[in-house]
Design a protein that fits this description.
EC 6.3.3.3, ligase, alpha/beta, single chain
Amino acid sequence: MIETDSRPSLLIGVIGTNTEVGKTWVTAQLLATLKLRGARVAARKPVQSYGPDEIDTDAARLAGASGEEVSDICPAHRWYPIALAPPMAAHALGRGPVWMSEIIKEIRWPAEVDIGFVETVGGVRSPLACDGDSLDLLNRLGVDRLLLVADAELGTINAVRLTLAAVGPTPTVVYLNRFDPDNRLHQLNRNWLIEQDKLTVITDVHSLAVAIEDVCEAA
């Protein structure tokens, strides 16, 4: 049964430096790993847009990992089968406007969740509603931590810095997706973010799961 006033013990917002950096893949892998390690997990993708021929949507992948119903991850009326930012997709499909307050009211959590994930859309400033973006959603939800998914390739340092400048003081872990330890550029990007920018940077899902468990236990 979904409660209307429950909140996970640890609420994590998932953001990306851009679209197509693998937020959903990372979140799904993390959900599956934490679940196997005994954590009670849940995920929410409050709104999703996707290509009309795409069958395996973000919400479906998250549901497969967490064991929840797809409609609990993302309400069916918030599915927009066109590859545009959700409020733009809604308009293109002739549907009503997407308002942030309505999206927030629709987020429901099961009782007694240890770790909950809210996955956003696109980059941190990508429009998520007519009156707000991904960062606005997470700020209004008051997430405890942020997981920033970035690519490990050329340009990632700039993308991470710009995203964190927008985010502000919320504690953030950077995950370099598709990291290849044998790729010198990937190594240099990771080392710069750790040594020069003093960031917490993780490059494998198991280590990320352990780090999140440590935060949950300390909460």
